[in-house]
Design brief:
Layout lengths: L7 E3 L6 H8 L4 E4 L14 H14 L6 E4 L11 H21 L3 E4 L10 H17 L5 E5 L12 H10 L6 E6 H6 L7 H14 L5 E5 L13
Parallel strand pairs: 1-2, 2-3, 3-4, 4-5, 5-6, 6-7
Length: 230
């Protein structure tokens, strides 16, 4: 059945191989890590690799706005520890520049955590400053803030917190949101029926604005509703 909806799959196997992996399972879109997601450093990306990726996208007619790069799991964009924050910002800039080298538009990132060392308000402000810092050092990449499960000291589990971050970001044209269904379910936003799903999306629109919703992570959940576990 034909549909205008685009479903995305997280793929592995090398950069340009992602296109073929996605097509093999019937996907017209995919997400991937642009480098080792559990390491602070990675070798530079060669222009040869980037060109192969761009040419493959062109050959297979994959629009770049249907591809999302996921940021490293090590990043804490809102850390009050300057060494940790510095590493996060340096890594984000590197990953975003790799995205731009490949021609990718969207970069998705977890907002961060207080780590019990600052207030949530301070953390949110630092996240916004980090996004500004990265945008000022890159050309066009749009950074997507992922909705979180509200676990522990992590920020972004409430729509209001994401709205606060966006409100503080200077260049709002280059910021968006990736809505993770597992995370919002764990954070207390019900999606178990069509009716409550529409109620949740209405809350999102009223709080953040649907104009910022650029991507979904459509995941099921091992945990119960409002469990704060991702």
């Amino acid at each position: 059945m034909e549909s205008d909806e685009v479903f995305q799959w997280h793929v592995s196997g090398g950069l340009e191989q992602g296109f073929y992996n996605a097509l093999s399972i019937g996907c017209r879109s995919f997400a991937f890590f642009v480098r080792n997601q559990r390491s602070w450093t990675s070798p530079p990306m060669s222009e040869e690799v980037a060109e192969r990726f761009r040419e493959t996208a062109k050959k297979l007619k994959f629009p770049m706005d249907q591809i999302v790069v996921h940021g490293s799991y090590l990043l804490n964009c809102g850390s009050s520890d300057m060494e940790i924050l510095g590493r996060a910002r340096t890594s984000m800039i590197d990953e975003c520049k790799r995205c731009e080298q490949l021609g990718i538009i969207y970069y998705n990132v977890h907002p961060g955590s207080t780590a019990g060392k600052c207030t949530r308000e301070e953390c949110l402000k630092t996240v916004a400053e980090t996004l500004d810092y990265v945008m000022e050092r890159t050309q066009y990449i749009t950074i997507l803030i992922e909705t979180m499960a509200g676990q522990g000291n992590t920020v972004g589990g409430k729509f209001e917190e994401i709205q606060q971050i966006i409100e503080m970001v200077k260049n709002k044209k280059r910021v968006g949101v990736c809505l993770d269904t597992c995370h919002i379910f764990a954070a207390g936003y019900d999606i178990r029926s069509e009716e409550v799903y529409h109620e949740t999306i209405t809350k999102f629109d009223n709080t953040i604005g649907l104009q910022y919703l650029r991507a979904f992570h459509i995941n099921d959940s091992l945990g119960k509703f409002y469990c704060h576990s991702s």
